[in-house]
Amino acid sequence: MLEPLRRAVNAARAGVAAASTRFGRRTLVWAVVLAVLAGVLDAVPLFDVLGYDFSFALGLAAALAGVDVGAGVVARWRRAQPDAPPTPATPRLLGRLLGEALLVAAATLALPLLLSLGNALRVRNCSLAVGLGFFALLPLATVIVAAPAGVLAALAVRRRGRLVAFAIPIVSLGWALLRLYREPPVFAFDPFGGYFPGPIYDEALRPPAALVWFRLANLVWIGTAIVVALAAWGRGRDPRRWRRWPLLGALPLVALSVALYASGGALGFRITRADLARALDRTITTDHFVLHYAGSAGKSPADLALAAEDLEFRYEQLRHTLGVEPPLPITVWEFPSAEAKKALVGAGNTLYARPWTHEIFMQGDRFPSPLLRHEMAHVFAGVFGDPLFGLALTVRFRGPLPIPVLASGLVEGVAEAATSDDPEGDSTIHEQAAAMIAAGLAPPLAAVVGAGFSTLAGARAYTMAGSFSSFLLQTRGAEPLRRLYKSGGNFIDVYRVPLADLEREWRATLARLPLNDRARARASETFRRPAIFKRVCARELGARVAEARAVMTSDPTRARVLLESTCRDDPDEPTYALALAEAEALSGARAEALTRLGRMEADGETTVPLKARAASLAAEIDFHGGDFANAAVEQRRATDWASTEADRRQGLAKQRALADRGARETLGRTLFGDALGRAGADPVLTFFSAEEFARLHADDPLGPYLVGRQLLARDPARALPYLSRACGDEAPAPTPRRLPVEFLRECRRMTADGAYRTGDFERARAALDRLAADASGEADRLRALDMRARVDWAAARRVGPVAGAP
């Protein structure tokens, strides 16, 4: 019984010995190393799918394997002729060495690829084609560059060829990291490191065109090196003695290599500040900032004046809150859209700052920008962060070993804390954290404040870190928080108590906050989704949904196909089902869409906010199908389920639009659009329909409210009389009808905004004082006080409207 096993072992040994003799021991070692790495990755969430993350990690190891295999091919060739006269340097010989190196290095990737493909039997792989594309463009393309580099290094340096071969990818990766540190983009391209896309929060990812161009450039560069090597091999260092024909062939390749490198900005793989300056070709300078923006964005002088004031006001707030000022000037790059920002710097919907270069990268947003102060706070925090990055980063020693410690949670937590007095939405950051804890969705605080922050779901991590940091700022002050940041989260040294004691005190404070049903409903959806590491094919499904959204109205059939495949791959994610219902309705399958939405509304597992979205979509489908009775029923459900004041306003307005024929033909056209999915698509028709509703329903304050809302950003002086009528401040013919309280609060917010823009500061103060007094909650009150502070700040600095305002 043991004999067959013995024969198998002997056969395996013989095979290994033969392979070692033929290909070298280092080749077998690297094949085993890469296979073991693939096996480990197959056990790690997100990396366990053949896609970008698996390919990127494998590619880093493949770079070292490729150069070493290439050097090994040359070493074996030299060992094969120890006493023979030197073999003449010929194109055929160089081709044989390069060909063997490429084949052997590529072969070391075969087993990792098979292991990842086999792992698809255990873990769902949602797109084999995309996975194979990333595998080809990352590890395979890397060895195509690395193996010839190893051959050329070993040929050029006889005694230290292997060390030089290893140095090539290490130096190249170091240069890529230096570019990542110095240049604006958050992405990086490197011949040996492949492609790093930037923030993990931009989940949708497929092989970008820039990566294809970069790999084509890599082929030209390594091809140029090979031809130059062929010209020089065996002819010394004097180019006059090199082979003529290879040398002549190298000249156009060198020219093409230089041209490709110089075109890196246009091709998207080497963006510099000069490229950004060309795209964002206009500049304004304030006391503390240099703002770059696109002339094509169509910003008016009033828009620019507001942006400048927004920057300076937030600077003054942060100076007071954190007690420091950063080196000046702070550079702000404002992109016209998330898509433009994604193409130029690699972060689409994610805003970011570089504390070490004092730069902020954002896209054009409404006034006041809700996220500007958060990113600016990172620049301020750079003053008390580590000297290299300005982050909560330090080095601690474990015995003789220096261990870098990055407190990522403090990096984001301090920025959130510095902005907590102007909350976005209906809850403060403390109320959000309390609701998350009450729902059992809160991660451990110890995991949040440290380097594990980035492995957690973004909404949960930011809220927990922000609430806790805000608690420390409010109860202990800014100076200890600055020292905590600089220490990389050494709570005992700074606060003289362990983190666990501070956490208990913080949680006790949160436990005393009142939570209503709407706050709990918001938390159930806001914090529902887990981190990217725990979701099915997060990158591929995110890419499908993004593609479907892009073609939803222009090609709804294509969107439907994409979303059907998405729902098959992840049938438990309700937002995918909601998007599919919209695509079904747009493609003509109205009955199927309503059935799907009805199931969502009846499903006890669907969160209340998603039920509201499902009912609202059903109402829109019924409206455009002419079934106004059912549309009214669905819209009432959506309004009852609305968990935010904005959603409730929208719901109440749509209910009014369904109340009678005149409202349907005017207000209905404004809120539901001329066709499904077309609400607000034509701003001229939207404004005309709102004005018609106001004319036909002169006794309804909702009409002037909507007209004033449309005018506010374009002509605040003309908006204010409409808002005054809507709020009931000065109606020419008072009527018993009043705006619902949700609209009245928003009407006062818009009045304050319009009055601020026109320089009527007393009117703005009056509206904000009433808004703070009648606030629906603490978040509403804090927003009113923040705007009040802005008004007082501006009143001391300018007279009249913002520059360029009517």
Defining key terms:
806 residues, mainly alpha, five-stranded mixed sheet, two-stranded antiparallel sheet, 36 helices
Can you give a write-up of this model?
This protein has 806 residues and is mostly helical. α16 crosses α22 (517-526), α25 packs antiparallel against α26 and α34 runs parallel beside α36. The longest helix is centred in the first third of the chain and has 29 residues, at 128-156. β6 (352-354) and β7 (359-363) form a beta hairpin. Strands 3-4-5-7-6 form a 5-stranded mixed β-sheet, sandwiched between helices. It has a two-stranded antiparallel ribbon with strand order 1-2. Helix content is 64%, strand content 5%.
Separate helix tally:
36
The helix fraction, in percent, is 55-70%
Q: What does the oligomeric state look like here?
A: single chain
Q: Report the count of strand segments.
A: 9
Structural class: mainly alpha
**Any low-confidence stretches, pLDDT <50, length ≥5?**
none
The 3D shape can be described as globular
Biggest pleated-sheet summary: 5 strands, mixed
Rounded mean pLDDT is: 91
Radius of gyration computed on alpha carbons: 31 Å
